[in-house]
Specification:
By secondary structure, this protein is α+β, with helices and mostly antiparallel strands. The chain is built from twelve helices and 24 strands. The chain has a 16-stranded antiparallel sheet that branches. It has a four-stranded mixed sheet with strand order 2-1-4-3, covered by helices on one side.
Length: 585
């Protein structure tokens, strides 16, 4: 009989032996698995050599007959079988054969390329593009796949996506650049805006830069760059353009009177002396918010790469600060604002990816008939002269033309000094990101947009420099169920020093005939605005705001009209708003 200590030692030894035996069995099992897997695969068919010979001789019907005898076809046989079916025009059967082959060998690009060819012949261009993108993920340098995919996008009208893949193989070669119809701008000026040239390969970055500088001229209501194939394999670039106020004989009159329902006219003179110099103005005689604004802009030193802006803005406005535009909400404060401002700035269109601007504003303000109501602090009511520096940077973070998806970012700064009873300094910082997506592979039947923006002020910001969340004709931070005026007076939308805003919308084309278009879709706005310096809490939104609604956009004769209905999910208020604009995207 063993002693307890010796028995314990023997038990431990037996236990260790069993564990080692189990480990050995596991190792043998895993090492045998690849061999088992290989044995489980069908053996190389006796018909493979025969099918390869028939394939070389292009005897398609015999390939199909021999392959269909196989009980279980290998990936190679499925490739030859699918190719033969495709050559015989049996597209659906060919597609199934290639799909089976792809599942057998996912890393073989041949199946993706052949599937793309089948889908292309069936005019299923989105599916063909998807298969080609899969092939290029396996081999990004494949010349045939890049050329094929570019051609698919070209047929869909997606020029930028086509160029993205053509540029990988140093294509397409441009023979001629044409403009149809010839615009009234000076040819030399338009030529300087173009960074593309004939007798060279068209580069996507150069096309995007050209688009940015043409847009910066601000004399065209619509334009596009088309590629036209030539019999010799080269292409022509055709710049098709429509000038502002040239859509209709009396287009200038419609533009002038578009704001008439709101006691406003918009005089404008476009492309003065054919130099892309524009003069645009706004004259509003509404007794509660009179305004005269005029802007003169044009290429700086005749160079379309840069554009100057000169602005004069005169305001005489009555304000009632309220918590809502509806219901029995009393005025928390009131005042009359008079402001005169002159600004000068310059914008540089560096490339199609980014641009920047810088400038200054000199202004004077005074407040009259002030009822502060404990809401407006002395710092908000600073009067006198002000000098402010302006700066902005716009950058395209993501551009995926094959997905028709872009993401852009913008940052702006303002640094000002007011000479009032005492000198005061303040700063405003704003940033935003905006995404735009066309879900379909061609056309603009659907369009989705999303934008988030935020702003912050530092120092003693004057009242007229506060941010506003709401729909108002002089404001661009829109909450579409919060109207910024009541009985004609501004101040009924939330005001504050710091804000966060999110806007989302989806547009669906429901009608279009070349002269007129109609889009419908839902929107969702969310935001919050605060003012920590306001002790009594009269400013700001106090909570998150949520606005849900729908809008209709009509564009005709060069003028855009947007009608929106929004519901404030916090208060239940309903808001209807009609907006006229020169350009409505």
């Amino acid at each position: 009989m063993d002693t307890p200590g010796f028995a314990s030692t023997r038990r431990r030894a037996r236990t260790g032996a069993r564990l080692r035996l189990r480990a050995l069995l596991l190792i043998l099992a895993f090492s045998a698995f690849p061999a088992f897997s290989l044995r489980a695969q069908p053996a190389l068919s006796d018909h493979t050599t025969e099918i390869k010979q028939l394939f070389a001789e292009e005897r398609w019907e015999e390939i199909v007959r021999v392959a269909e005898v196989e009980a279980e076809r290998s990936a190679d046989i499925n490739y030859y079988y699918g190719t033969a079916l495709a050559r015989l025009g049996r597209w659906d059967e060919a597609r199934r054969a290639f799909q089976i082959g792809l599942s057998q060998q996912p890393g073989d690009k041949r199946f993706s390329l052949e599937l793309a060819g089948v889908c292309f012949r069936q005019k299923n261009y989105p599916a063909a593009a998807e298969h080609l993108r899969r092939a290029l993920r396996l081999d990004p340098a494949d010349t045939y796949a890049n050329d094929f995919l570019a051609g698919v996008y070209f047929l869909q009208g997606n020029v930028e996506a086509a160029l993205k893949y053509w540029n990988r193989i140093s294509k397409p070669e441009i023979e001629e650049v044409r403009i149809e119809p010839a615009p009234r701008v000076a040819p030399a000026l338009l030529d300087r805006a173009f960074t593309i040239s004939p007798a060279a390969a068209l580069d996507l970055r150069e096309l995007q830069t050209t688009k940015a500088r043409v847009k910066g001229l601000n004399i065209f209501s619509n334009y596009r760059f088309d590629l036209e194939a030539r019999p010799d394999g080269k292409f022509d670039v055709v710049f098709r353009v429509r000038e502002r106020n040239a859509d209709f004989k009396w287009g200038w009159l419609i533009a002038l009177l578009r704001g008439l329902p709101y006691q406003t006219v918009n005089p404008e003179f476009i492309n003065i002396r054919r130099r892309a110099i524009n003069s645009e103005s706004l004259i509003r005689w509404d007794a509660e918010k009179r305004r005269f604004w005029t802007n003169l802009s044009g290429p700086l030193f005749g160079d379309p790469k840069m554009r100057f802006h000169l602005d004069l803005d005169l305001r005489d406005e009555n304000w009632d600060v309220r918590r809502s535009f509806a219901g029995s909400t009393p005025a928390l404060a009131s005042l009359n604002l008079r402001k005169q401002a002159f600004a000068a700035s310059a914008t540089s269109f560096v490339s199609g990816r980014w641009d920047w601007s810088t400038g200054f504003e000199f202004s004077h303000r005074d407040f009259r008939d002030v009822d502060a109501g404990g809401v407006l602090t002395p710092g908000l009511l600073s009067q006198g002269f002000q000098l402010k520096h302006l700066g902005q940077l716009n950058y395209k973070l993501l551009d995926a033309p094959e997905r028709r998806f872009t993401v852009g970012a913008s940052a702006s700064t303002q640094l000002g000094r007011i000479w009032s009873q005492q000198s005061r300094v303040f700063a405003k910082l704003q940033g935003s990101m905006e995404a735009r997506w066309f879900p379909q592979s061609a056309g603009d039947d659907y369009e989705m947009r999303g934008k988030i923006s935020a702003g912050q002020t530092m120092g003693e910001t004057p009242f007229d420099e506060l941010f506003i969340l709401g729909v108002e004709r002089d404001n661009d931070l829109w909450m579409r169920a919060h109207i910024g005026t009541r009985e004609g007076r501004k101040g009924s939308a939330p005001l504050g020093r710091d804000y966060f805003l999110s806007n989302w919308e989806l547009d669906k084309n429901v009608y279009g005939n070349g002269l007129m278009s109609l889009k419908l879709g839902p929107f969702l706005d969310s935001g919050k605005i605060t003012d920590s310096s306001n002790e009594r809490g009269g400013l700001g939104s106090q909570t998150w705001l949520w606005d849900l609604g729908a809008q209709a956009k009509v564009r005709a004769l060069g003028v855009g009209v947007a009608f929106s209905y929004g519901k404030d999910l916090r208060s239940g208020n309903n808001a209807f708003y009609l907006r006229f604009s020169r350009f409505l995207e």
